[in-house]
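BUG: 3D viewer hangs when loading the predicted structure for this chain

Environment: internal workstation, default settings.
Expected: structure renders.
Actual: progress bar stalls at 90%.

Input used:
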Amino acid sequence: MVNKQLKLVNCKLEIVNDSIFTVKSIISENKKGNIIFEIKDNKVYPIIYDNKLEAIDIDDIKQFYELMYNEIYNSNNGIGSFNITSINSLLFKLGIENNFKSIANKKDDITLINLDNNKNINVKLSYSIKSQLGRPAIILNASKHTNFIYKITNISEDDVKRINSINTPSKLKDRIHELEKINANIEFVGLTSDAFEKNLKMIDYKLPDVLAEVLLNSYKNDEKFLKKLFSESSIYETNELSIKKLKDFLEAISFGIMPSKEWNGINNVNGGIIIVSNDKKIYVLDMIYFSDEVRKYLLENTKLDSPSSTRYNMLNIYKKNNEFYFTLNLQVRYIK
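Structure tokens produced before the viewer hung:
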């Protein structure tokens, strides 16, 4: 609402265009219904759950934005939940509960009706929102659906007990090194979630195997940068192919894939990423005209994260049908 002209940026967040898209409406979906803000001239016309309210001056919106931004920026770097007191009066005026909840299991955070000035038509585009104010956002969240299963051979019961007893601060890395030391064989056998495995295979049939290798190597070599891990893949024939498949994967988990649901190959986020920067500016990584820049940004700014090894029972060797297995869990986060 503050900036009607979207500032489109490249992978380095440098503005490349600010005249293609003019915002006409903003739509936010939540469990009670849609919250819509129509922008005309210097006025914003709220439609809250189908109720049309009186217009608000853009200047008033700018003041609220400044207050809200400063409060978030000064609140422990955005870590944890907190009350944004400066915005409560606006929400009350609009008849919006200050604890309203968005619809779960959606990749898109907001929808814009934009005038595409190149084509002189209105287009409806959905976006994910990334804020630089708090902790780096998670793109793919750890869950029971993101467990990768590995089978171990050439290992004894005594080895299993000894390795499972390793409880150092770097226990995952140390357990893998111990498996290597005894020459145990580690083989990826699948994911706990059939839906997520099918989703990955829609991107590339080899992708589950590549991610399993990447996960294992990330703990073995203490490396989290996805670009580097994929570049060292022994499965894809060339580095160019590895990087292309990584971009495909990052685009899919950013804009389409939910691990718990079978994916149809179509991303429900079609506009790109809205970035709330730490300099108070709002930028857009645009998927319509600059999709290569979005993919480059994802490539250079993502890493594997380390979810709780206790919660997901990672690298705790277990026996099933007289064979030994362990799991590792996949979580992907922005670097900053």
